[in-house]
Amino acid sequence: MSAGLKPLAIDLFCGLGGWTDGLLAEGYEVIGYDIEEHVYGDMRYPAKLVLRDVLDIHGSEFAHADLIVASPPCQEYSYMAMPWSKAKAKAAAIRADTTGEKLEALNRLFNACFRIQREACEAADRHIPMIVENVRGAQEWVGRARWSYGSFYLWGDVPALMPPTFNARKVPGFRFDGSKKSFQEASREASGLKQPGLSGVRNNGKGDAWFQDGAAHLGSKSKGRKAASAMIAKIPLPLSSYLARHFHPQRAAA
To answer: How far is CA 136 from the centre of its chain?
Structure first.
């Protein structure tokens, strides 16, 4: 990073910008990449957005980056972790495929992150750190995570020292039903855990009916459901800010 310039971070599968919020707060320039633009009322990606399929990106494009972060879609991993017969059958079919083609297809987006990092490092002739976030259920298919911040599981260049987790989870209490409770109110200030309501058990015995009574009644392709999913996936600000500070070039050089 040249004197007077901001460090550059690349946010893959950026969604509404959970990683980007922390990076911007710590003084980075950020470019986000996603296959679609997420705009839901006042909520949208907060930095420069490039609409690209990550599978079509060559990492040499990021040779000038100081950090790469990524949150590839977790739906398939989460689905196969559920106690449903169809979910179990899908997982069993992947395990039974001796060609490895089904597993490769399942992990194509996750693996693309590390391909991009490798290509970026080769083009830059230096190491460019990367953090990839996903769900606990991904571990069976991609290998054990290096750290977890609540239900946010991390792979890649995870620092040896990480911040303490205070029940970090993805938005219990967020309701896409007119209550106007924001992701920031429900997740950043409160906690941030992947909502257990996806189990289909009404209220989960804890009153967490946001999914069933809120987003779940909407169609799977509706804007309301997509908005809820995008907000659930946002990285908690304490986590994104911590990693942004850790990898900031000026801090590393100090």
So the answer is: 12
* Positions of the chain with pLDDT lower than 70, given as ranges: 1-4, 166-223, 252-254
Contact residues for 217 (Cβ-Cβ < 8 A; gap 6+): none
- Sort 114 into a burial class: Cβ within 10 Å, 0-12 / 13-18 / 19+: middle
Q: pLDDT tens digit string along 231-241?
A: 778 899 999 99
Contact 70, 11 (CB under 8 A): yes
> What angle do the packed helices 18-25 and 237-247 form, to 10 degrees?
50
Report the alpha-carbon distance of residue 23 to residue 179 in Å, rounded. 29
Q: Name the 3-class secondary structure at 228.
A: helix
* pTM greater than 0.85: no
**Could you give all domains of the chain from N- to C-terminal order, each with its CATH number?**
8-165+237-253 (3.40.50.150), 171-232 (no CATH)
